[in-house]
């Protein structure tokens, strides 16, 4: 496939931009499909050996807590010590005040961020990312119940890493949950690759790369921290400030580092934006499996408390945030004008709140402070 030319116009998911020298050519992204978190993989094997020695199995009553085993044994094992040191080391570029501002950004626009996260991040982009989808369906993605559980787990993690600054510092709840996710990713990769050894047709490594590979991780972090800025909030009438972009991207640069994601792709706002745009061009490829997963994602969200939104509202919001072309490829329904009007009403509400917050700092502070309490 021909490389994109610098200066050329690109369009993906109804988002148009110009290709620059900051964007990632395929010759740079394709090899990343075959790279992965080697440190985490080695540590997982050692943790599994230690768990087996203690008589732990996959039985729910004896299932090992790999993170706890890591805590208890990292001082006596060089392989575990390597992972532990990496997790506990805070990079020089981390500015805790900036990361705290990034956390506040999530709650400042909580209603818009959550809606964008669900309809654009999950229903749209995750469904259309073929490599991600292929791993997802091999870990229960064809089941609406499992998908809902996965969605809620992801949202819970998002809450944990944004609830307070102490939560993401070493030893905090968000830091620990991120470390657990890193081990979970290693476990998923290991399980799929073991099945491929005896059943090569089970997962196409040549086409999709190693499961949960480095490119997948980069794409995931870009979805979490960049899509809000350029694909979600602006389409709901909110324009994040330059400071907000720097702060929120810095937060997920650090979280990506904990997940063994190369952080250089998010070192600056322009580089992060170019990374997101590169993922849109290279990674969105709708397949039959994508259509099934999208359908199941929508089923997960229909009438989900506390919003209890309809299928038509989800379709209208998805089409506004993802564009008709991508939604048509995903075989999403076309709702009537009432559903579009309802979603436009949501956009009007969140954009009006945003405008009021910028005019009234005390109101902004109140919104940020009250938003985390709503989850309780």
TrEMBL record:
It comes from Neoarthrinium moseri. Residues 114-349 form the ER-bound oxygenase mpaB/mpaB'/Rubber oxygenase catalytic domain. One of its GO terms (molecular function) is oxidoreductase activity. Pfam families: MPAB_Lcp_cat (PF09995). This is ER-bound oxygenase mpaB/mpaB'/Rubber oxygenase catalytic domain-containing protein. InterPro entries: Lcp-like, MPAB/Lcp_cat_dom.
């Amino acid at each position: 496939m021909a490389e994109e030319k610098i200066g050329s116009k690109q369009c993906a998911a109804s988002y148009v931009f110009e290709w620059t020298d900051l964007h990632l050519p395929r010759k740079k992204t394709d090899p990343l499909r075959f790279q992965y978190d080697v440190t985490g993989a080695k540590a997982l094997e050692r943790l599994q050996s230690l768990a087996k020695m203690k008589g732990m199995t996959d039985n729910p009553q004896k299932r090992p807590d790999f993170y706890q085993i890591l805590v208890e044994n990292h001082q006596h094992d060089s392989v575990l010590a390597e992972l532990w040191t990496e997790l506990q080391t805070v990079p020089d570029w981390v500015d805790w005040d900036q990361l705290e501002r990034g956390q506040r950004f999530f709650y400042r626009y909580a209603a818009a961020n959550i809606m964008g996260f669900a309809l654009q991040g999950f229903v749209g982009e995750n469904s259309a990312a073929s490599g991600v989808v292929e791993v997802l369906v091999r870990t229960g993605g064809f089941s609406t119940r499992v998908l809902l559980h996965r969605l809620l787990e992801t949202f819970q993690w998002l809450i944990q890493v944004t609830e307070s600054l102490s939560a993401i510092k070493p030893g905090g709840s968000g830091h620990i949950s991120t470390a657990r996710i890193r081990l979970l990713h290693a476990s998923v990769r290991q399980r799929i690759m073991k099945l491929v050894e005896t059943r090569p047709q089970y997962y196409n490594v040549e086409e999709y790369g190693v499961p949960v590979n480095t490119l997948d991780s980069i794409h995931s972090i870009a979805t979490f921290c960049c899509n809000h800025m350029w694909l979600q909030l602006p389409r709901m009438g909110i324009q994040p400030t330059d400071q907000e972009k720097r702060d929120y991207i810095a937060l997920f640069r650090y979280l990506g580092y904990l997940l063994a994601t190369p952080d250089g792709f998010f070192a600056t706002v322009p580089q992060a934006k170019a990374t997101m745009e590169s993922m849109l061009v290279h990674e969105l490829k709708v397949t039959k499996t994508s259509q099934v997963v999208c359908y199941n994602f929508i089923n997960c969200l229909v009438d989900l408390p506390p919003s209890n939104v309809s299928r038509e509202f989800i379709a209208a919001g998805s089409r506004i945030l993802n564009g008709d072309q991508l939604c048509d490829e995903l075989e999403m329904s076309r709702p009537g004008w009432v559903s579009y009007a309802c979603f436009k009403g949501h956009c009007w509400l969140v954009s009006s709140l945003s405008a009021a917050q910028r005019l009234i700092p005390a109101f902004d502070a109140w919104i940020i402070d009250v938003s985390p309490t709503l989850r309780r």
